[in-house]
Amino acid sequence: MTTEKSWPNRFFVEFDLDEACPLDFSDDPAIVLFFISWAYSAEMGGSHELAQAASHLRRQLKVDLRPIYKYADRNVETPQDRMELEQSWQPASALAECVRAIADHWEHPDAALTPIVVGYEHLAPRLRELAAMCDWAVTSAGPEARVRMSFDLENTEQHSPRPPGY
Questions:
Q1: Structural domain includes residue 144
Q2: 122, part of any domain
């Protein structure tokens, strides 16, 4: 039975398997995309609180965040876009381990993470769901199973037209 999602598809998780993953997110996974984007920005000096959380996870808590940095835009317009999308495949087991570690720290934050978690409590459950999807792939295909995270930020939501003059 397929249920209708009440959120726009912006974040995608794919596996290099012949069968579709039977697991899905129970709520909008955009928070995962939001977090991984800010985590990536932290490497370039990003100062958002989620970038700071990612830096703390990596530097002080020694969480290997490299797997969450591997994601790409689904909207392929150039050969470079195609290459980035293809290069975003990675071992499902590594991504599962990474997001599970982040979720563990998010659910049991230290003093530095405690104030940041407030307002972002919905991140850990989505990370746990992502880890479960990756675990399914590894169980189904073995340690060679690969996963690709991608996003599509094209605005597909319906909006009312602006009044004339705005």
A1: yes
A2: yes
